[in-house]
Amino acid sequence: MNELTQEIRDLCKEKDALILAHYYVDEKVQDIADYIGDSFYLAKVAKSASCKTIVFCGVTFMGQSANILSPDKTVLMPDLNAVCPMALMVNAEDIQKMRAQYDDLAVVCYINSMAEIKALSDVCVTSSNALNIVKNLPNKNIFFIPDGNLGRYIANMCPEKNVILNPGHCHVHSTITADDVERAFNLHPNAQVLVHPECKEEVCNLADFIGSTKDIIEYSQESDCTDFIICTELGVIHEMKKRSPEKNFYAVNSYQICPNMKKVTLEKIRDCLKYNKGEITVDESLRDLADSPLERMLELGSVPERSLI
Fold first, then answer.
1. Rounded Cα distance, 32 and 4, in Å
2. What CATH architecture does domain 3-83+261-282 belong to?
3. Kindly report the CA angle at 264 between 258 and 269, in degrees rounded to 5?
4. Cβ–Cβ contacts within 10 Å for residue 236, how many?
5. Which of 166, 207, 279, 308 has the most CB within a 10 Å radius?
6. What topology is assigned to 86-170+288-300 in CATH?
7. Distance (Å, whole) CA 289 – CA 64
């Protein structure tokens, strides 16, 4: 353990802090984290943890969600400028318009959104539980925000629902094209193609498996295949290699990197703990409104498919 890592561990002990990290952050940050996972898993950890302080290594909507679910804890973000652009691709007017246009509407809000949007929604989802939650909702009409690609994937899997799409997108996943996948497959013809549902439909159509970051990692671990083409942010490969060091993982292009996730560094983690920098808080009145759809996500996300219909 080097000096910086030891300093961070000592500060965590002193401040009664846990480090939570998303799979997309730098591998050195993943290695120092107490818990690493996708958004759904980290939201559950943030709520159930008994610590006083959470250091959330990810983008700002994740820190907001932790504060909403656990207002009794101090939530620190190593870099408050690490913002997910997709989280800003929907606004209150869009939601109001849809509520006026459709009866029996459920506003289903991807967790990749800001607290102000969560507060106007009926339920939050992540890529790992969105399909199950949408199927379990009694509503026929679903306004899925902000990611249009994930919404389209859910619509295709739920033909019984009327899913209204929003034009938001993840800039990392949207850069991946079918041509990229085909070029990678020509280089690695024995590989399976693993795709995140935030990708375009043309990419999903070439997939051997479609799933959340957690699902993709677990699939690569359990599959008998030894070669995989990865269609998501390349941070997941670090965990894949840890679980399956004998297997090979290939990128499809050079743009599969989220610059905002990569803003989180060990030095910034140390500084936020040492100087109590980067605290993220959601106003109490807004937090109360945003808490309900997040709590509903935690409730519905573990319910067996269709059991509520």
1. 11
2. 3-Layer(aba) Sandwich (3.40)
3. 165
4. 24
5. 166
6. Rossmann fold (3.40.50)
7. 13
Tell me the residue length of the chain.
309
Identity of the amino acid at 48:
S
Q: Is the pLDDT of residue 307 over 70?
A: no
Q: What pLDDT is attached to residue 302?
A: 63
Beta bridge partners of 209: 194
**Which residues share a beta bridge with 2?**
none
pLDDT in tens, 116-151: 999 999 999 999 899 999 999 999 999 999 999 999
Quick one: 165 exposed, middle or buried, by C-beta within 10 A (0-12, 13-18, 19+)? middle
| Record: fold of 176-251 | Rossmann fold (3.40.50)
The H-or-E segment that residue 11 falls in is helix 3-15
Could you tell me if residue 60 is left (phi over 0), alpha (psi between -120 and 50 degrees) or otherwise beta?
Answer: alpha
Tell me the three state secondary structure of residue 113.
Answer: coil
State the first-to-last Cα distance of the chain, in angstroms, to the nearest integer.
52
